Amino acid sequence: MAELQARWGPSYRLLVTFAAMIGTIATILSATIVNVALPQVMGAFGIGQDHAQLISTAFLAAVTATMLLNGWLVDSFGCRLTYAVAIAMFVLGSVVSGSAPNEGVLIVGRVMQGAAAGMVQPLGMQIIFQVFPAERRGSAMGLYAVGVVLAPALGPTLGGVIVDGFGWRAMFFMGVPFALFGLLLGLVFLPGPTPGAGPRRRFDGPGFALLVTALLALLTGLASGQREGWGSNRVMLELGIAGAAAIGFVLWELRTDAPMLNPRLFAVRGFACSAAVGLVYGAALFGSTYLVPLFVQTIQGYTATRAGLLLMPAGLAMVLVFPIAGRLADRLPPYAPIGVGLLLFGSSMLLMTGVGTDTPFWTFALWILVGRIGFGLAMPSMNAGALRALPQRWVGQGSGAVNFARQFGGALGVNLLSISLERQTQYYAQALTATQDGGPATRELLRQVELLLAQDGVAEVTRGAAAQDYLAQMLLSQASMLAFRDTFLLIAIACLLALLPVVVMRRRSAG
User: Fold this and answer.
1) Among 60, 183, 211, 356, which lies 20 to 30 A Cα-Cα from 404?
2) pLDDT tens across 68-96, in order?
């Protein structure tokens, strides 16, 4: 680092930050860009929501697992090599995803992208803390955070334009040029391993293996439950393996002298409360970002571009809110911004329970905007509150753990909300179908549809079946809309329940 600073002079700080930022933006962009393409991917591969949601959750789960590896990788191999390998893996994952012949290969590609993103994301913060003096770190972090937040905010919009213009496969290649440019900058400006740093820190192999097993078995079991039945032997086995691996992970991390994730952190009440809120926020944010584009494309008939534009005002608002929220985090106790943020996000989801086929674009965009402002207010205080509660020797591990909680919440939230959506759709479809008992209203509707088909020149022999099919599609669309409303309500309830840890934080602060 000292040699690079001497070679490039005062401008080195900005150059190395820009290098890390480009790679981070390229990898984060792929987290949300895929959501607007899910209907097209489902149509291309002939899959349902139970498979499609794995395209999102596979990425988030991989980020969750590899994020905890970052500290060991940087200590062992240096920033430059860690960054280069991660970017190379991301590019390879993008190529695999974009050329995937089936959903299985696509999910493998998404895992590779997510694993790379998990390794790259913490690097930027580490670089800033190394090259900037303490009095300038806040400004540098603010600049870096704007780029990090702007990427997922613009992801759905850019993805929508690409999907409509070039097809869904082209979307996975969008981040490749930025990633390669970031790789070039990283090889030039990022520091290598520190000479004479001593022996390499031992890798927590058993802990990592248990964590990956728990995540993989849990997400697979949840996805299998909808297809195989929740009481099936396969699902019980997968969920059992997930539970056993999770327990084994905690026990191992308690006894090893070099834990990836120290469970003792969660014995600190203030940290545990912040991590619990982070878990809910991750589920709410990533879950709603998954659901909204799916709703407007499958129920309201939006194009992918229009679905992406719906999320853009909220994303831009977050960019403006973050610097303000950072200052509030320095001046207010953490529970205040976190509580207000949860109320705003919950209110946003509550408003969305009234969504329908005729909800105007800007009304929907405003509802989403309210929730994202809430998230922007809460996030800096959530991170700061978590780390302030810890002894100084645990701050480094605490930073990784609170990010782990948020990412894990995102993976779990998308999966559980997708399951809820599918189950509620089936429930309402059966209930609505039962109301069509051949009464006067149903017969009149079918007659009117047959008359319209006759005007279009449809043969008489097929009109009856076509009218019945139209009725079935109409009932399914109505059932899906009601199911989306229920799922948005679940997110609102989760935000309300997350106020309980906030109350504990307030009492602890008052005490």
Assistant:
1) 183
2) 887 788 778 888 888 899 999 999 999 99
Tokens matching residue 261: 């994730």
Cβ atoms of residues 168 and 39 within 8 Å: no
Please report, for the domain that includes residue 376, its CATH number.
Answer: 1.20.1250.20
User: Both 332 and 350 in a single domain?
Assistant: yes
Q: Is the pLDDT at 202 greater than 80, yes or no?
A: no
Terminal Cα distance for the chain, rounded: 44
Which pair of tokens denotes residue 413?
A: 């939230």
Whether residues 183 and 213 share a domain: the answer is no
- Are both 453 and 391 inside the same structural domain? yes
Dihedral sign for Cα atoms in the order 180, 181, 182, 184: positive
Q: Please give the C-alpha separations between residue 368 and each of 7, 329, 361, 363, in angstroms, as whole numbers.
A: 47, 23, 11, 9
Euclidean distance between CA atoms 372 and 316, whole angstroms: 9
Question: Is 361 among the domain residues?
Answer: yes
Distance CA 418, CA 257 (A): 39
Sign of CA dihedral 506, 403, 31, 242: negative
Based on the domain organization, do 186 and 329 belong to the same domain?
no
